[in-house]
Amino acid sequence: MKKTLTVEEAAQMMGITTQHLRASLRLNKYPLWGTAVPSASGRRYKYTVHAVPFFKYIEGTLGPGEN
Fold this sequence. Notes:
Blueprint: E1 4-5, H1 7-14, H2 18-26, E2 34-38, E3 45-50, H3 51-59
């Protein structure tokens, strides 16, 4: 199994747009499974979606404080 997913893959599974997911990650809405790290210039971001906790979130089995 892959350790990370692309923003495109995760957004499709969630039924939202990639733009919506990127904005949510920048606002730290999903800290248990996703991050958005700004570049040195602050104009671009590096997005990471951790596969295992993301799938637990999608399945509804990821509780508060779990990773």
